[in-house]
Amino acid sequence: MCLAVPVRIVSVEGTNAEVEIGGLKRKISIWLTPEAKVGDYVLLHTGYAINVIDEVEAQKTLELLQEMISTDEVH
Amino acid sequence: MRFIDEYRNVDLGQKLVSRIHRVCTQPIKLMEFCGGHTTAILKYGIRQLLPQTVEMLSGPGCPVCVTTNADLDKAIALAHLPNVIITTFGDMMKVPGSYSSLQQAKADGADIRIVYSVRDALDITQNNPKKSVIFIGIGFETTAPTLAASILEAEQKEIKNFYVLSLLKLCPPAIKLLLMIALVGLSEVKLDGIVCPGHVSAIIGSYPWEFIPRQYNIACVISGFEPLDILLSLVMLIDQIELEKPKVEIAYRRGVKPEGNRQAQELMARVFEPTTATWRGIGKVPLGGLKLKKEYERFNAESTFSITPPLPREPKACLCGDILRGAKRPPECKLFGESCTPENPIGPCMVSSEGACAAYFHYGVSYG
After folding, report:
1. Residues B259 and B327 in one domain
2. What is the C-alpha separation between B105 and B112, in angstroms, rounded?
3. How many other β-carbons are positioned within 10 Å of the β-carbon of residue B83?
């Protein structure tokens, strides 16, 4: 029910946007994420973007994972 | 796919699992609140990879599963009204109410249409101006803002024939009640940590969970849904538990900000207000649901249409209620996999794609 998937915004028109999901295009609402712009990835839940994915934080999480493992390998 | 594939790296996953085995020194009990997490944990075999001392319990975080028979019966009664079109998420169709299901009502001639989004329900409404279109509004905080947006859109477009049966629920009050019950010794479930729901938190942020470590001394980590997200969350939870420093941490930072989504919160608060709601398995949860505010009462299906649903009854021997509280596991139910299967479900936890019973049925290799 609370499923949400990352999709990339291709174009924006008012509170609607066109997104790409695995090569397919679909119209969604960005009413809940007015800051969303073309090129952003958003979390799509039942036809609405519920958040813009924070790419910097995404990268930091991957770095944290690497760091965790490398400190682990020292032990 | 971006933001998915990089969180499924097997090598990294194995190393995280080794870390968990090394760091975890004591038996611990964790609950994943969200049914999406239960499904992911079983689907990716995460439970089998964990030390025997780490117990994972599934929680009540499945909107379909926690909808009571009384509420399901209302939806079914609405479906039988003349001149009405019911629109609903697909998961609701096969859920058995007290005597019937939406699927059965459809077979009996009711006009029920499965939609992917409440926006599709609005389209159906506009295409059928002579019918009353009712959306069965199930969901948590993730879905509530989308319903709020659809009601505001209907208002803007002066759509007069759109109604909502609000069965929306709020998660933190339900967890609070579960923890209170455990604290006073009325439940056998004593938790050390909670995997908090990622997409509910995308809307509400991390602050509404702060009471959990503060009042109950229980560790909390908000998790994403890919295997590495979950393993990272488990590492963070175990670290908190080992250090005896419970707090709320966000492992799913690409999707969740501490303050959540303010715009979504604002839309939700404009249209809905908290109310007491009955959750299957938990009971009456103060402020555990959402009802339409007075200004939007004309969209309320329940007060607009006159229905007389039957007195609700529960299926005998079904353990969905206990399973939703984490007090029992699906294989402990004698109906599980025998008379209750995804094809012929007796309880809702076997129907929903994120119900614990369905997840165990599909992925719980050993049922251990």
Report:
1. no
2. 8
3. 10
Which H or E element spans position B111? strand B111-114
Q: Which of A34, A50, A73 sits opposite B202 (nearest CB)?
A: A50
Is this complex scored with an ipTM above 0.85? yes
pLDDT of residue A70: 81
User: Which pTM value belongs to this model?
Assistant: 0.96
Q: Would you call B255 and A69 a contact, using CB atoms and an 8 Å cutoff?
A: no
Q: Is residue B305 part of a domain?
A: no
Its domain, for residue B363, covers: 320-367
Q: Is residue B147 part of a domain?
A: yes
Query: How far does B299 lie from chain A, in Å, by closest CA?
Result: 20
Q: Please, what are the averages of pLDDT over each run of 10 residues along chain B (368 residues)?
A: 92 94 94 96 94 95 96 98 97 95 97 97 98 98 98 97 98 96 76 97 98 97 98 97 97 98 98 98 97 98 96 94 93 96 94 93 72
Question: What is the reported pLDDT for B90?
Answer: 94
Please indicate, yes or no, whether residues B237 and B203 belong to a single structural domain of this protein: yes
Q: Is residue B242 part of a domain?
A: yes
User: With bands split at pLDDT 50, 70 and 90, how would you rate the model's confidence at A74?
Assistant: low
Using the Cβ of A34 and the Cβ atoms of chain B, whether some distance falls under 8 Å is answered with: yes
Interhelix angle A55-74/B10-23, nearest 10 degrees = 60
Residues of B in contact with A55 (CB under 8 A): 254
Residue B210 resides in a domain: yes
For residue B366, the model assigns a pLDDT of 58
For residue B167, which residues of chain A lie inside 8 Å, CB to CB?
A: none
How many domains are there within chain B?
2
Record: contact A6-B253, CB cut-off 8 A? no
Nearest by Cα to B255 from B205, B210, B186? B205
Sign (positive/negative) of CA torsion A57, A58, A63, A66?
A: positive
Q: At what angle do helices B35-43 and B356-363 cross, to 10 degrees?
A: 10
pLDDT of residue B79: 98
Cβ contact A41–B199 (<8 Å) = no
Residue ranges of domains in chain A, CATH in brackets: 5-74 (2.30.30.140)
